[in-house]
Write a structure and sequence with these properties.
InterPro entries: Epimerase_deHydtase (IPR001509), NAD(P)-bd_dom_sf (IPR036291). It is a single chain. The chain is of the alpha/beta class. Helix content is 32%, strand content 16%. It contains 9 helices and 11 strands. The strands form 3 sheets. A 7-stranded parallel sheet has the order 3-2-1-4-5-6-10, sandwiched between helices. Strands 7-9 form a two-stranded parallel sheet. Helix 2 packs parallel to helix 3 and helix 7 packs across helix 9. It is globular and about 60 Å long.
Length: 309
């Protein structure tokens, strides 16, 4: 059935792939962005130019809208963003899907050995600080984890949206990956520089950009609500990742344990002091099976290697 769908974001990374998949499935798609990044969709989509973080602008942009079957919110980074979503879309959407993150489990890191399940976080008990300067660009990196956690907490506590929060594993992509995280490790190996790591066995969960867009498309066609983890099988630690890159590029790898006084997260993007995996049993129970990182990781590594040539 053809649906009227809004994607907030949708011009890069897995958001752009999601829009393409929605179009391929025959849906009517609108994207809402600031208009700074061009998209390749031409006349196949409608566009709303708006600042997602400006409540007045959002209210004005969607005041005349009759609503949507699905809203995919790729840009909900704080409880302030969540509050805007409630004020603009409550009662106007049948399904509200937020792209959340594995990082909502960050505060639980090291507290359990088992992969994190959705129920391991009591969202209704999370503190919410709407007075913090969430939209200050100089604080964007340091406030990311708390912002995503509190965004979910606000939405679930409010309860007025038919909400799904997709907690996505660390997303990796090819040369178009603006985060530079996989490129960091490829470059490290190419330069014969040593990797310093906190825990060689501290594997984390990953997703490809393509796999992420596929799951979001599928989630939009379902009826469940609530949080759901999205991650491929085959978690890797930073140590595992550079070993794999070294074997693939046929380059010797140097890896050294970190000094005890080095704080977690200071070494490299995916270095953790303890396992950081997600349990995907809920997605499986709902009927979705994720693939394995072996299906796509080597291809992405080679893309980054070629980018350095």
């Amino acid at each position: 059935m053809r649906k009227n769908i809004l994607v907030i974001g949708g011009t890069r990374y897995f958001g752009k792939l999601l829009v393409q998949r929605l179009l391929n499935a025959g849906h009517q798609v609108t994207i809402a962005t600031r208009g700074h990044t061009p998209d390749p969709f031409g006349a196949r989509i409608a566009r709303i130019k708006v600042d997602r973080r400006n409540e007045h602008a959002m209210r004005a942009a969607f005041a005349a809208s009759a609503g949507y079957d699905i809203v995919y919110d790729q840009m909900c980074y704080s409880p302030v963003d969540a509050a805007i979503a409630v004020k603009v879309f409550a009662g106007k959407v049948k399904r509200y899907i937020v792209a959340s993150t594995i990082d909502v489990y960050r505060e639980l890191l090291g507290q359990q050995v088992a992969p994190f399940a959705e129920s391991d976080i009591n969202m209704l008990a999370q503190p919410i600080d709407t007075r913090y300067p969430w939209h200050d660009p100089t604080l964007a990196t340091e406030s990311y984890v708390a912002g995503k956690l509190q965004a979910e907490a606000y939405l679930y506590r409010d309860g007025s949206l038919p909400l799904v929060t997709v907690r996505i594993g660390h997303v990796l992509a090819g040369a178009e990956d603006f985060t530079g995280r996989l490129a960091h490790y490829v470059d490290l190996v190419r330069q014969r520089a040593p990797l310093r790591y906190a825990n060689a066995a501290a594997a984390s969960s990953f997703m490809s950009a393509q796999g992420t867009s596929n799951f979001l498309l599928w989630a939009g066609a379902q009826e469940f609500v609530g949080p759901v983890n999205a991650a491929c099988e085959g978690g890797l630690s930073a140590f595992d990742l550079v070993q794999r890159i070294g074997m693939l590029l046929e380059v010797p790898v140097r890896a050294l344990p970190a000094k005890p006084d080095v704080a977690a997260g200071e070494l490299s993007p995916f270095d953790y002091p303890a396992p950081y995996l997600m349990n995907t049993a809920r997605a499986a129970q709902l009927g979705y099976r994720f693939g394995h990182s072996d299906d796509w990781l080597d291809h992405l590594i080679l893309q980054h290697d070629l980018a350095f040539v």
